[in-house]
Amino acid sequence: MDVPARQAEERARSFHEIMARRRTVRDFDDRPVPDGVLEWAVRTAATAPSGAHVQPWRFVVLTDPERKRRLRAAAEEEERAFYGRRASDEWLEALAPLGTDEHKPFLEVAPAVLVVFEVHKGPHTPRPYYAKESVGIAVGFLLAALHQAGLATLTHTPSPMRFLNEICDRPAEERGAYVIPVGYPAPGARVPDLERKQLDEVLVRL
Ligand code: IYR
């Protein structure tokens, strides 16, 4: 680790400063992601701890416009059902401040979309343990790595996600878990005026 104890707090503080500036972006520019960034970020994601070290993740990068178009069309179909009838009034009320709806242009406009799959037991893959938790931690690392490189992301979770297998050419034992557009914010992109909880609201010391 090689961080002397006297530097530990400063290192933790400066990492916090970087991470505190991350915001979920829904309005992307079409400027490409610089070469190599996605690969390094996926390498970082793949350093995450996983149950029994099975590493039950697969990352698919979509940049092909036709695949992104199909992804958008399929996701919007699910979201129309969600916003139109599946979501409870309580859920829709919780989402209202975010201003989300069934339109997902970012799935086509963002230069790259990372689709993250949980890998379950299959002909060539072992049974994973704590797959959801493992992949969730890996996605946290991924978002941090991309943010650190100056890229914006949106964590999108269409539900159900089976359509992702066909669009991404993945076998049945891989289950879509996250769809993450990556790129630069569009000029003038806006984010909701949200506040984060204060430390004393999230931390209990005993
Ligand atoms: N998946 C839908 C709805 C949605 C749900 C939650 I929880 C959010 O934090 C944001 C959106 C959509 O993408 O619009």
From TrEMBL:
PANTHER family: IODOTYROSINE DEIODINASE 1, NADPH NITROREDUCTASE
Pfam families per UniProt: Nitroreductase
Classification via CDD domains: iodotyrosine_dehalogenase
Annotated ranges, domain Nitroreductase: 20-184
The keyword Flavoprotein is assigned to this record: yes
Alphabetized InterPro entries for the sequence: Nitroreductase, Nitroreductase-like, Nitroreductase/BluB
Keyword Phosphoprotein appears in the UniProt entry: no
GO molecular function terms noted in the UniProt entry: oxidoreductase activity
Protein name: Nitroreductase
Keywords annotated in UniProt: Flavoprotein, FMN, Oxidoreductase
Organism listed in the record: Streptomyces qinglanensis
Signal peptide: none
